[in-house]
């Protein structure tokens, strides 16, 4: 698990809009009032994985699947409430060690061409490998102003994994 901690106003630098529904496992989390919070990945019809720093207790947490443009109703969306949220017991708010959690859905996700589980890796990624990251990014900067069009459409970028000692020296 690779953890990247970024400030409130960071974006996917060098990213691009994904092909529509090209990553059907990507979802975003919302509060019960619909406020978008964090990203997550669907791992099977009942479970998703996200970062532990995104923890919201049920029943306030919902997952949103089948999305591309979060401001357009496409007819592909599913919103499912969380039944259970399990942060890693070793998660540290100090240094973000073990920054992941599992989310059990209150009902199974309906698989279709817009909603699918993330494909599992066949081997562990190594330093130097290129990996795909995706999400919608932030839409509000720290001053509360809406950022120009950022984060409406699903975004992706390809990044190169770094050696742990490289990260430790930054």
TrEMBL record:
Keywords recorded for this protein, A-Z: Disulfide bond
Gene Ontology annotations of biological process type: proteolysis
Coiled-coil residues: none
Domain Peptidase S1 span(s) in chain numbering: 12-170
Gene Ontology CC, one term: secretory granule
Domain of life: Eukaryota
Gene Ontology molecular-function annotations: serine-type endopeptidase activity
Pfam families named in the record: Trypsin
UniProt key word NADP: no
Entry keyword RNA-binding: no
Stored PANTHER family: KALLIKREIN-14, KALLIKREIN-RELATED
Protein name (database record): Peptidase S1 domain-containing protein
């Amino acid at each position: 698990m690779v953890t990247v901690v970024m400030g409130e106003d960071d974006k996917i630098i060098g990213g691009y809009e994904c092909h529509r529904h090209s990553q059907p496992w990507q979802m975003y989390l919302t509060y019960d009032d619909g406020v978008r919070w964090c990203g997550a990945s669907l791992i099977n019809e009942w479970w998703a994985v996200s970062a532990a720093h995104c923890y919201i207790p049920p029943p306030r947490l919902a997952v949103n699947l089948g999305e591309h443009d979060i401001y357009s109703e496409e007819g592909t969306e599913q919103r499912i409430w969380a039944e259970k949220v399990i942060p890693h017991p070793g998660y540290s708010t100090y240094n973000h060690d073990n920054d992941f959690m599992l989310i059990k859905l209150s009902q199974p996700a309906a698989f279709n061409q817009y909603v699918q589980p993330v494909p599992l890796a066949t081997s562990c990624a190594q330093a130097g490998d290129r990996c795909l990251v995706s999400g919608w990014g932030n839409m509000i900067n720290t001053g509360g102003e809406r950022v120009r069009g950022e984060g409406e459409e699903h975004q992706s970028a390809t990044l190169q994994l770094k050696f742990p000692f490289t990260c430790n020296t930054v």
